[in-house]
Amino acid sequence: MNNKKQKLELNWIGKEKRPRLEPRIFLEDEALSYHSTKAEQALDSAQNASSTSNQTYHNNLLIHGDNLLALKALEQDYAGKVKCVYIDPPYNTGSAFEQYDDGLEHSMWLSLIRSRIELLWSMLDPEEGSLWVSIDDNEMPYLRVLLDEICGRSCFIAANVWQKRYSRENRAAIGDVHEYILVYAKQPLKFKANRNKLPLTEKQAKVYKNPTNDPKGPWRTIPITAQAGHATAAQFYEIIGPTGKVFNPPPGNCWRYSKPVFEQLLNDGRIYFGKKGDSQPTTIRYLSEVEGAVPWTWWPHEEVGNTDESKKESIALFGKSLFDTPKPERLLERIIHIATNPGDIVLDSFAGSGTTGAVAQKMGRRWIMVELGEHCETHIAPRLKKVIDGEDQGGISKSFNWQGGGGFRYLRLAPSLLKKDEWGNWIINKEYNAEMLTAAMCKHMGFTYAPSENQFWNQGFSTETDFIYITTGSLAYDQLKRISEEVGSERTLLICCKAFMSEGADFPNLTIKKIPQAILNKCEWDNDDYSFTLNVLPDPEEEIIEEEMDD
Hints:
The protein is of the alpha/beta class. The protein is 27% helix and 19% strand. It contains 14 helices and 27 strands. The protein is elongated. It starts with 25 loop residues before the first strand and ends in a 37-residue tail after the last strand. InterPro entries: DNA_methylase_N4/N6 (IPR002941), DNA_methylase_N6_adenine_CS (IPR002052), N4/N6-MTase_EcoPI_Mod-like (IPR002295), SAM-dependent_MTases_sf (IPR029063).
């Protein structure tokens, strides 16, 4: 028998075909970037003040463009730095590709999600980062297996069930009233240790009472018994109550504490024997000691909102509900509260109506959002401006006493670095100026773009002693000799240029490459659309193998 642990995989048409993404640079649209004029004003709450200190003009990014290209563009600077990724991708309800059969539609959806989740997973903080994905029944089982494959089955945390409706759906055989929020964490044990608990609800707090007028305030009792499966001898002993009544653990149980610990609790007044002193002992827990409630997987609409609430929020912001499946702000508040702390980065690459950024802003988190649609400019940016100016008092604003503050940069993806000329040859895109070309080449060659003010050849670095210089000019021997002398023997320099003449001389501290030849085979060029397209499918001449959906 083969005892080797097998890896479960999900198979679909086109799985083996992966995009070779061009790492683009970003261009800021300063006319749409925005920062608060109230940023220096004192705010009414400490929570809001904290958020303002973390919400500088450059901290938050609203990116307009294909989200797969945008994630690739973010990868170099943000890999391992994002605390929480939340996405609400298209649910593949069967209407996205009416011209294709179900198998092709399903395959395209899986390929689209797979490519994005792989990049998103790499963005997460390797210690405490977590991924949250909204999904419904159409693809949830497949997505769960896919996430196990990408993230690792051991990284699964929970499949939260959100009650999106509170009224009955009478048109279906069984009414659909829920969606899922799947959660995976980079380090599950560290996530458990560091995730935030939820504040007690009014109903939960009412359990704590003070029938004894205890000066420490309201309290409740906690059983001191536990299952005896892994008990030690020290957890079996007699307890004598105030009336002389003797207590032993019930059959199959033991005391939760050893006898010395129990006696210490008794001396501290933390053991309760009931009003008459003859009931089985319990432990007293004070409300003031409760940090919060451990999150669980059932998220009722009373606690986190529903689709009616989200549509009302949308109408208040935009005059009408423009989005089919907006999420209520309270739902995002819970996710962000559990997974992050003020100042942490939250990333959403399917921005939709912009709820993630709006909530993150109000909660003092930094955020990055990506959206391809034109509503990124016409609706999301104006919504965020209202949040920053304190004009948006809907959603969670009042519970956080939000008065405004912060800002964001509005970025667009630069066009492809290479274009074909009229003869079909790849050349540098004429839309690129020298600064854009340098920044792009740094990204392609794995360098951080950081031009020096004093050394013309120092335009970026990969280590403390390794630098890069990009020019569209041709470098003669004398120029290379001068650069080599300035670089010195303790440093190295990568030069990317149009042409060079070294006349047989060897410069050991220089590596010289021609552009665009140096990057021609690094990726696929001049492709601006990685959305729901047929490019995930095999080439027409390839044999189509019957689709398999095996575990």
